[in-house]
Amino acid sequence: MIILNEHLGQEADEVADKLNETYGFSPWIDCKTHDFFDKFLTCVQRPTDLPKGILSTSLELRRKLKDEYGKDKKVLVLTQRDIFDSDNPNHVDFDEDWLFSFSFGKLSMISTARLKRPDNKPSNELQVSEDLYMKRLQALAVGEIGLGFIHNPAHFKDAIWVNTTKGNRLKLGPSCTNNSCAMYGVVDIKAPHADEGYMLLGKEKRYDAGLDNLLERLGDRPDWLCKRCRDSVKVGKEYL
Ligand SMILES: [Zn+2]
Fold it and tell me: What would the mean pLDDT of 145-168 be, rounded to a whole number?
């Protein structure tokens, strides 16, 4: 597996270490310039000094990465740009449509844009401790990458974020049902207030799907997987 980063060398090292500790393989690290990502990603300009956002529909990038690294390699991109889930760069709701991460085929991508503050707002500057910032990033990486080879075990259920104030629902994909496992779904930095919404896990409403809440539950355990996820790990050759 390759961790391709956009000037995030230290972050790439920390993620590689945690993936190695958790899953037992050593990702290879590569770096590309802003120009490379500008060329192969669909960017959205915002009326702020934040870097351009990008859309999760990254067809061009997927093609380019296949050319560059071969079609069978798994690539995790780390970027400081906000990722938005929209098909149209002209109709993006900057407060609602953002994602921490996504996976599509052999490409996974994680954004650091919303990991730097006590709340979920995007920032260029680190406003929480470096330790918390790196742990947030590592937890997202362990969860996102694990989905590639912990294949829907029996204890997984489909998770949906239900925004009760706006009435919209967003599919999050499969999630572990153990809330003290890195494969548990997260919807925000802090678990949203019950008035705002909940994560529907199978038929159950969960009000604990914050990234920082998950980190508190993971505590100082070196292994962030629950036993059932641990027993289901089978790393494919595209990761080696
Ligand atoms: Zn689990």
Answer: 89
The answer for 70, left when phi > 0, alpha when psi is -120 to 50, beta otherwise, is left
The Å distance, Cα 158 to ligand 1 centre, comes to 13
Would you place residue 87 in the very low, low, confident or very high pLDDT band (cuts 50, 70, 90)? confident
Report CA(23)–ligand 1 centroid distance (Å). 13
Identify whether the C-beta of residue 46 lies closer than 8 Å to the C-beta of residue 94. yes
Its CATH architecture, for the domain 2-239, is 3-Layer(aba) Sandwich (3.40)
Domain edges within the chain: 2-239
Would you state the structure tokens that stand for residue 31, as one six-digit string? 């770096």
Structure pTM?
0.95
Query: Checking DSSP bridges between strand 43-44 and strand 53-55, what pairing results, if any?
Result: antiparallel
